[in-house]
Amino acid sequence: MKKFSIALIVILAAITVQASVCYAQGAAKTGPDPSTVRDEDLEKDSLHNLEVARHYFKLKKAYVAAIKRCEEIDAGNPNFAKLDEVLFIAGESSLRLSENRGKQKTKEKTAGQLRQDARVYLSRLVTGYPNSVFLKQAEDDVKGLGGAIPKPTP
Asked: pLDDT digits over 98-150, tens only?
């Protein structure tokens, strides 16, 4: 009888511990936040486009090409992990094109339209990515463009 009582106590203790462990993992069933779920292939493609945009922006001074790559990323992968850098390159490229800098010229947009595009891109960076390494430069540039456009409230 003594052995039976000890065995019963051990079994009950094991069941109690097991039940509490299962309860603690209950939230794991919901999965990750859907807004942060990223498609691996899309991320890889976007990263390649970002590298090309960086090359055009920094080395070639081909700002029109950099903007096109950034717009492709922004349209195709709005949850891209490095969207802050995409917005920065697009905004800076637009700003520099409006000042007639770089090796490319655009006939599609006027200097005023390019400045407005730069303001939109940089405002999105300033309001949406407060921890970005590009934040300080974006804030300085957007001040010269009339200040950040406030983030729309839903």
From this structure: 999 999 988 899 999 999 999 999 999 999 999 999 999 999 999 999 998 98
Q: Is residue 132 part of a domain?
A: yes
Is 54 inside a domain boundary? Answer: yes
Number of domains in the chain: 1
C-alpha separations of 107 from 37, 80, 96, 112 in Å: 39, 30, 15, 12
Q: Which among 65, 154, 84 has a CA at the least distance from the CA of 123?
A: 84
Is residue 82 a part of any domain in this protein? yes
Q: Is the pTM of this model over 0.70?
A: yes
Token digits of residue 35? 């807004």
Query: Which of 53-61's residues contact partners 24+ apart within 8 Å by CB, and which partners?
Result: 53/86, 53/89, 54/85, 54/89, 57/89, 57/92, 57/93, 60/103, 61/101, 61/102, 61/103, 61/104
Residue 60 domain boundaries? 39-154
